[in-house]
Specification:
Elements: E1 2-6, H1 11-22, E2 26-31, H2 37-45, E3 51-56, H3 62-75, E4 79-84, H4 99-120, E5 124-133, H5 149-169, E6 175-181, H6 187-192, H7 202-214, E7 224-227
Parallel strand pairs: 1-2, 1-4, 2-3, 4-5, 5-6, 6-7
Helix pairs in contact: 1-7, 3-4, 4-5
This protein binds NADP nicotinamide-adenine-dinucleotide phosphate.
NADP nicotinamide-adenine-dinucleotide phosphate binds next to helix 1 and helix 6.
Length: 232
């Protein structure tokens, strides 16, 4: 299977790339830097049928998506999944949030998802799917945390975009879903919440997402799946 993942330089994106390569898939990984490309290339050589294509790009820039489209169009024949994973979190009291904070978070967390789906979905066939990575913070009725007003709002935007896009792409047989994880032990979480320990292991969550990407997606469309072991 050929799978595109944004934000692979660290955290969940890196863990998902490793998991899918170890399962023998082609991973097209997008990142602003090349720092993990050699490691993922080496991993792909150790796994039958796996291959890795690394693309450096800032996904908030619309023209970068045209370049990504041209690279992918020339090298992939049957795109199975697009995983919109890249994200940023700025943890600040609402009164201190700036216009720049707003623009940065909404550019990466929402606008880049819009660019990516609009640009790459024409390459997708019936039976393929899009998976957006949102957050429990963006799910209505879940526990909320001070400092995450704009981050959570951006993830809520992606969740609702998922529901609408599932209807737009239904006639083409493309499923669109969203997972909303709670805390994951990645650099993002450690930087935003220093000292907080309770969180999912990114490698374990990556295995769940790989199962979903290979198989589970067929049973869901237009769904926002909470990945949480607590209530609410
Ligand atoms: N960690 C959590 O507790 C948690 C919980 C729920 C949901 N999530 C969501 O899960 C996803 C992955 O989070 P994570 O914890 O793995 O975060 P992370 O460790 O901060 O990694 C984020 C990735 O996004 C990339 N990225 C950021 N801006 C980019 C841009 N403009 N262009 C291209 N790539 C860009 C980063 O690459 P660079 O090297 O280019 O910066 C990095 O690879 C995010 O959408 C996040 O919101 C995380």
């Amino acid at each position: 299977m050929q799978i595109i993942i944004t934000g692979i330089s660290r955290g969940l994106g890196l863990a998902m790339s490793k998991s899918l390569l170890q399962r023998g898939h082609t991973v097209v990984g997008i990142s602003r830097t090349e720092k993990v490309f050699d490691e993922l290339e080496s991993l792909s050589l150790q796994s039958n049928n796996a291959s890795f294509i690394g693309i450096t790009a800032d996904i908030t820039q619309e023209d970068e998506w045209q370049r990504i489209y041209e690279i992918i169009q020339g090298r992939t024949t049957d795109l199975h999944a697009l995983i919109n994973n890249a994200g940023i979190l700025i943890n600040k009291p609402f009164s201190q949030m700036t216009a720049d904070d707003f623009d940065r978070m909404f550019s990466v967390n929402v606008k880049a998802v819009f660019f990516g789906i609009r640009t790459l979905s024409p390459l997708m066939q019936s039976g393929s799917h899009i998976l957006n990575i949102a957050s429990m913070g963006g799910v209505q009725g879940s526990v909320k945390f001070p400092g995450l007003s704009l981050y959570s709002a951006s993830k809520a935007a992606v969740a609702v975009m998922t529901e609408v896009l599932a209807e737009e792409l239904r006639p083409r047989g493309i499923h669109v879903n969203c997972i909303a994880p709670g805390s994951i032990k990645t650099e993002m979480f450690k930087e935003a919440f220093p000292g907080v320990e309770e969180a999912f292991d990114p490698e374990a969550l990556a295995e769940f997402i790989s199962d979903f990407t290979e198989y589970g997606f067929q049973f869901f469309n237009g769904k926002i799946l909470p990945i949480s072991a607590t209530t609410p």
